[in-house]
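User: These chains co-purify. Model them together.
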Amino acid sequence: MTALLEVRGLHKSFAEFTAIDGVDLALPGGGITAVIGPNGAGKTTFINLLTGKLAADAGSIRFGGAEITRLSASARVHAGMARTFQVTNVFPLLPVEQNVAVPVLARTRRSLEPRRRFDSMEDVREEVRGLLATVGLGERAASTAAVLSHGDRRLLEIALALASRPKLLLLDEPTAGMGAGERERMLERIRALAAQVTILLVEHDMEVVFGLASRIVVLHQGKLLADGSPQSIREDARVREIYLGEASVAPAPTTAAGAGAPLLEVEHLDAGYQASHVLHDVSFGVARGGVVALLGRNGVGKTTTLRSLAGLTPPWRGSRIRLQGEDIAGQPPERIAARGVSYVPDDRRIFPDLTAAENLRVPLLALKRGGWTREKIGALFPPLATLWERKGQHLSGGEQKMLAIARALMTAPSLLLLDEPSEGLSPLIVRILVEALAQIRKEGVTVLLADQNLMFARAVADRALVMERGRIVYAAERAQLLGDQSTLQRLLAV
Amino acid sequence: MLFQGLVGLSEAMYLWLVAAGLSLIFGVLRVLNFAHGSLYMLGAYFAWVAFRITGSFWAALLIGPLLVAAVGWGMEYGFLRRVYRVEVAFQLLLTFAFVLIFDDLVKLAFGPVYQSPPTPAALSGAVRIGRSILPTYHLFILAVGAAVGLGLWIFLEKTGFGLIIRATAADREMARALGVRSSRLFTWVFVLGAWLAGLGGALSMPVRAISPGMGEFIIIEAFVVVVLGGLGSLRGAFVGALLIGLLHAYGLVFMPVFELALAYIAMAAVLIVRPWGLFGAREA
Amino acid sequence: MAPRRGISRRNFLQSSLALAGASALGAPDALGAPDLKLKKPIKVGCQCILSGPLGGYGEFMRKGATLAMEEINAAGGIGGSPIELNFRDEELKPDVGVKNARYFVQDWGADFLIGIDSSGVALAVGEIMPTLNRVLIVTHGATEKYNEDLVYKKHIRQCFRVCVPVYQDGIASALVAKDLPVKRWATISPDYEYGHTSWKMFRAYLKQNKPDVEFVGESFAKFGTVDFSSHISKVMALNPEGIFSTEWGGEAVTMIKQAKLFKVFEQTKAFMIGMGSAMDVLQGLGPDYPDGVWASGRYYFGYPDTPENKRFNDSFKKRWDTYPSYPSETSYTALNALKKAVEKARTLDTDKVIEALEGLELSRPAGPCVIRKEDHQAVYAVPWGQITHDKKYPMPTLTNLKIFKTEEYYRKPPFAPVEG
Amino acid sequence: MKLVASALLTVAVLLVPAVSGPFLQYLVLNMLLLALLALSFNLLFGMTGLLSFGQGAFYAGGAYAAALSLRAGFSLIPSILLGSVFAAALAALIGAFCVRHTRIYFSMLTLAFGMLVYAVVWKWTDVTGGDDGLIGIPRGAFFEKPERYYLLSAVLVLVSIAVLHRLSASPLGLSLRAIRENAERAEFSGVAVRRTIFIAFVTAGFFAGLSGALLAPLEQTISPSAAHWTKSAEPVMATLIGGPFLFAGPLVGAVVYLGLKEIIVRFTEYWLLVFGLVLLGMVLSFRGGLLGAAADLWGRRTRA
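Assistant: Joint model of the four components:
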């Protein structure tokens, strides 16, 4: 019997970056298979290749025995492959029932029918009703999709995918950004679905993965690292290492922080995007001169927390963010920057056409004040010292990361917000970074960083806060970070 | 035949000045300013008024564009900034309303008759190139166009303000997170763009008839140039303007039947092959 | 929505002042106009280009028509009924022209229509005149198709024209050119029917009169050309001895200014421009207008030297503080022709007025004139002349006027196709 | 409610010749033709999210084809049909290039093709009459009477509006809205996005062509300005004024646009100024009225 899905030698690169590097995979059909891997492992690219959102550079994809490597996305849907997206992807201004009617009509080859009213097609209506009932949205049929709660919209997306009556359903982080109740509901739905359709799942939430999957595939740096039962994956040393980080980074000696009033106080921070409620009542403080790490897996709200602090994602009403005692919640980003908060996004956001030196000058010019010099930066990040005249787009990922941090330091901020500083970096660069952070705090800069890598946090932070699903669930002081890490490992590892 | 190209290039310089402002504004503000041709018209009228008062072409060249820059400030500060968050089509409609308003205001103020002060004596000569004669004014325009190109390049590449503009054009959100006050920057960029259009108009004053509605003939060509070169790319606007100038000059000689359509054929061809234009950034 | 009333009320005082001037023109006895008991007021719908770069033409047309109305009303109106005018922008678009005409007749209640600057609009509006059944007197649109096709061939009797058609630009020009020391001619003209037709006529009639001429090049500029440099350099590369052009309005101004920069006037022996004596071009170029350029129009304020013309110029200057351009004279004449025809027909009935207009003889500012019966074209002479700068006038004027007999250049029925 | 409104509209439109003078009748017909053009434009814009700046090409295509057919001696109704079909064919030709583009690139490409058509019409004098256009377009003895022509056109426009309305409520209409909302999701729902846009493009071309084909015999003349971008801008303005998100938006907008212009020109020669100020006010005061409701909806979407 041929496999439902058979992938051979799949390969995809973007410019110089190889996202998927020769992956082979066969799914016999039935059950739930989970694809996991740390950030940047290539999971989403893999799904995009399977479903035709991206064209593969090499390799073949066979589905149900037929070659589909060159088919358009919609043709693959007709062949029986449906998917959901990492970021909720519905038709926001259409009512829920019309959302679902779109794929139903497409499947029954009536998308282009111009003469009949679609709302008078009884069979369509009935099927839409059935699908909405399946995902538990029967009550919301007439609502506009945009006003649904985040969890409901994710369910709607699943209904959209199911409407194509797929043989294979690909779910990209179906529970990302969900509250506990919503997540439970979603897990039940997925479990129930598994009886009818083969499911391929990409997920960060290990509770979800281990609660659902019968088979787990681990991707790392575009390659298939491990493939097996949940139990075998849990015990795989290589998998542990890529998730918790290299043990080789030694913890740096840190001075005790926290003298005087806290620099930053966050109280009841709620934030999100449209109807998606990401942060729930987040409260914490950062002492002056300290390094605090926000830990947590992908999609738990770390980035949103930092963006809210930087003013890029406005906090919702009732949130309080005090910097040196003054409320900055809801201020525009440039005002917050002027108050001494610098932000380094996880995707670096280097200005591609500007040279490294010019990138560094932007904040100096914008805020009309100096602080650090290029020499000081060069001492902090030696690899940058020879690259000043190179354009941002021609720097490697690690160089860009250093440059992004350097750029944030130029105006001598009082608070540095670092999103995923260690992500995707070589051990050498990580070591440079650890040393640099030690130096930075010596300069009196307070750091709040968000990372997935426990080892990195251990090396640099004197306090760690663990986030799960938009909430802070655990706080570890330096002693706990260095000492018993079992709780942290449970929260962060697979 | 080379001479014909030179003439085409000199014609292209007016287009370049208008297109440069249009492209700059689009690159930073993401607004397609339909009224940019009207700013060119205002440049010509203001320069003419300044000329009548001062009697000096050079003073007119200085004052006219500055007054247009002031109008640009009013447009951005008073109106455009209220619509940055609405759909592009409505922004286009807003700037189109300005086209209508400026046309009639100019007619109210100056009447519908043609105005055309004499070409300044210092520039009304000509130089002989082979068997052909090139007016000094055309050389002057070529020099001014090149100088503005060079000046803009220096301004954008070598000055702090230029750096901020480039950074904001590339990534508005990140620039703000680094402290760039974008709303003020938008105003200044619009003012600069308006000044460029005004300069184009002021330069055209002594050699082209000034009349209400004169901006409408240039705005669509400026759109073509900007789209051809790549939206938001100044280098693209420069090359695009030269290309249209040359196409026009040589098209007249070799394919006069197609003169009307050449610019559009070029635009359609480029868009089909490279939708983001010759020098534009490819959008994901 | 009250329609815009004629200017008469607002400017009643000026109208009274204009009274004296009016007495000499049109009506033999100003205050003694017969009371024909016609409807009051007599409404005339005027359309012309009022917006955009060519808006100056409409402005001159309006000034002429308004002056005529004020004079006629001050002298007792047409057969005792005052005239009321209403102006609309034709936007140079045929559909707008058609809509305006329909509005005037079907909604506003116009008894007559005058105006129209664009040939295309004139043809489109002319075409629907049988439906509207009003007399239309075109005052600027110059295409020969209007009189030759619409009136003569298709018998649309409602269409008249009081301005000289393209015969002036294309045929009279050839009569001037045959005596010039030029054998190699080239043109820079508008890339539309008007430009092509006048160049074709010019070549055909010049060749007839002077078989050894050569036509070495042509460059046609699209409507809305803002720079003629490429056209000039293209044509000059062909080494012509004379340039013929039918650019008009702002484009004529731009073209001549730029030709001057390119030293075209030094390099050629003659430069002819059909609409070059239009007041907007004279004023627009001012001191920049090179001496010796051959120019013409559909009327030139300095010709003829008659009391009628002098009076017209004087009252026009008094009223508007400018010299009249040709659309001023033609629209002034259109209203006076209507007055004369209506008073002759003693009714507003379209058929009767048409009969009265056919063959009507007028003594207009531009000189004696007859409206031909066959094609409803007003026949009168307009001079060609050379640009000069006379201190007496605030703008360039014409000298060395050349006036031809109208029989020499007005095409006649049956309008054989031009061979060219 | 909607049914009552459309019934009233239909009756009112059909009663115009009986109760009004010829000019009002002519003006109403002009409004209907612009409404049809704007509705066809909005099939792409409001429904599919693609701002076409070249609908004038198809409008002119329909007008010229119908005019040539009439001048060749064919009778009115087949000529009108022929005009629309020709416009649809032209749209198929141009659409094949345009459907790959989105956003401003789509707008600019349609502008380029529109102006190409304009240039062809202007220069191909032998067929199109060049800049003078085609004049003396006959519409046959029976329809020479304006009321008859009005009724024929009004019925055709009303039927087209009904067809477009049905289309907007059909699976095709839903697919188009889905593409507007989220083209990627539509593709992954099994909707062949480009083919669907192509069909919308050709359909819009057909109805734009019908509008033009009805205009030519009405004016009895057609000129290149019908293909110029300024003509293409009219349905854009009408739609934006009326609101792109309601089916009736372009219809209301067309009536407001032409009505407003007609009123303004009766009061002042400076109609550009007044009209510009009115537009300015409309764009800036989104919050109220029909336009405002639509714009709010749109604004929310763009922030999404």
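Residues 2-29 of chain B form the longest helix (28 residues).
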